[in-house]
Amino acid sequence: MDDVLHIASLLVHCRPEALAALKDNLCLLPDLELHQESPAGKLVVVLEAEHESRILERLDQIQNLPGVLNAVLVYHELLDPEGEAR
Fold first, then answer.
1. Record's PANTHER family (predicted)?
2. Are the beta carbons of 71 and 13 closer than 8 angstroms?
3. CB atoms within 10 A of CB 59
4. What's the whole-number mean pLDDT along residues 38-63?
5. In Å, how far from its chain's centre is CA 66?
6. First vs last Cα of the chain: how many Å apart?
7. What is the C-alpha separation between 23 and 77, in angstroms, rounded?
């Protein structure tokens, strides 16, 4: 398969009292950025990976972190080596 970059955006919902610990845990995961958060326990997370399977693995990891109620994929894009969307 040719070189592409997968960009994915997730909405992660956790118990509000677990928000700080969840953010700490998410920061330990590679190729992940936190973009927005709500005191109600909602986070917007962006992932970058070379393979779609890595996005799915990371989503599964996030869903299993303590305090997470749900994590869903809301956006997925493929970029070619020149940075153009496919």
1. CHAPERONE NAPD
2. yes
3. 18
4. 96
5. 16
6. 14
7. 24
pTM attached to this predicted model: 0.87
Contacts made by residues 20-28, CB under 8 angstroms, sequence distance 24+: 21/66, 21/67, 22/65, 22/66, 22/67, 22/68, 25/65, 25/66, 26/62, 26/65
Q: Among 11, 9, 3, 5, which Cα is nearest to 72's?
A: 11
For the sheet containing 32-38, what is the strand order?
Answer: 32-38, 42-49, 5-14, 68-79
pLDDT at 3: 84
The two tokens of residue 43 are: 């986070």
